[in-house]
Write a structure and sequence with these properties.
Serine Threonine Protein Phosphatase 5, Tetratricopeptide repeat; 14 helices; elongated
């Protein structure tokens, strides 16, 4: 699995999904992600006069180019463009939000927090940055701070993607072990976006923790119905069926993991289960 399977947050005018989908030991590692070294120096903020109309236009031009690079996955070039935008207009909340996002993607969570806080100092009601700050706090395992941010975003009636904040909130409650609260938040997310495989998957994890395998299977199967190669959902289903003694169904899901999984340890474990189950027949 990749970092994109974790938790979601949105640069301005862009909705990006990051799914949260594995047991705690693997979730935390994936939230943090692989740190890619920065190939450029961070721009140091300095005192400046208010940006002119020309400065604002230049900044917007850099932002557009940066957003284009970002949508194509080129974080380095996007970072450079957003830093150029910040030089000419350091009061642009979207620029700071983008820089926070890129810092998060590089695993530089403290820098991401700093950028988001600067964006919110400019506009305290900027709910996208509020949510994104919550995501970064979750990456730092500062669960209560993350919960505060997601709830703050949800208080904004103009917030465009409340399903994401509810889904994030459910994920954090799950990580805290507060499973009923997680269930409620995830169900609120599904009311607003019933086709989120990520949310449905995490709900399945919650039901596993609550000891309700029937509801867990239902949620995980719905996640697979949305994303057939949802490897982590197959893994959880395989283990549920293995525990219940349904060897045929367990074998079916382990085979998907072994064939299509990317996590080496998970694939190896699935292969071992397959061998044992086939031997049992």
């Amino acid at each position: 699995m990749t970092k994109e399977h974790l938790i979601n947050f949105q640069p301005e005018h862009r909705r990006t999904y990051h799914l949260a989908e594995s047991p705690r030991s693997r979730i935390v590692a994936l939230i943090t992600g692989t740190v890619v070294p920065l190939l450029f120096c961070l721009f140091l903020f300095a005192c400046s006069t208010a940006p002119t109309t020309e400065d604002i236009k230049k900044a917007e031009s850099h932002n557009k180019r940066g957003a284009s690079f970002l949508s194509n996955g080129d974080l380095n070039k996007a970072f450079v463009e957003f830093q150029e935008a910040l030089k000419v207009n350091p009061e642009n909340r979207e620029t700071l939000n983008y820089l926070g996002y890129i810092s998060y993607r590089y695993g530089k969570n403290e820098e991401a927090v700093s950028y988001y806080k600067k964006a919110l100092a400019i506009d305290p009601n900027y709910s996208e940055a509020v949510n994104n700050l919550g995501v970064t706090y979750a990456a730092l395992e500062q669960w209560d701070k993350a919960i505060h941010q997601f709830n703050a975003a949800l208080k904004d009636p103009t917030y465009r993607t409340p399903d994401l904040a509810y889904s994030n909130l459910g994920f954090v409650y799950y990580m805290k072990g507060e499973y009923r609260e997680a269930e409620m938040a995830l169900r609120e997310a599904l009311v607003r976006n019933p086709v989120s495989a990520r949310t449905m998957y995490v709900l399945g994890l919650v039901y596993i923790k609550l000891g309700d395998d029937s509801l867990a299977i239902d949620s995980l199967m719905k996640a697979i119905g949305m994303v057939p190669d949802y490897i982590d959902a197959h893994w959880e289903l395989a283990n549920i069926h293995l525990r219940s003694g349904d060897k045929a169904r367990a074998l079916k899901h382990f085979e998907v993991v072994a064939e299509k999984g990317e996590d080496a340890a998970m694939v190896r474990n699935a292969a071992e289960h397959i061998q044992n189950l086939k031997y049992a027949y």
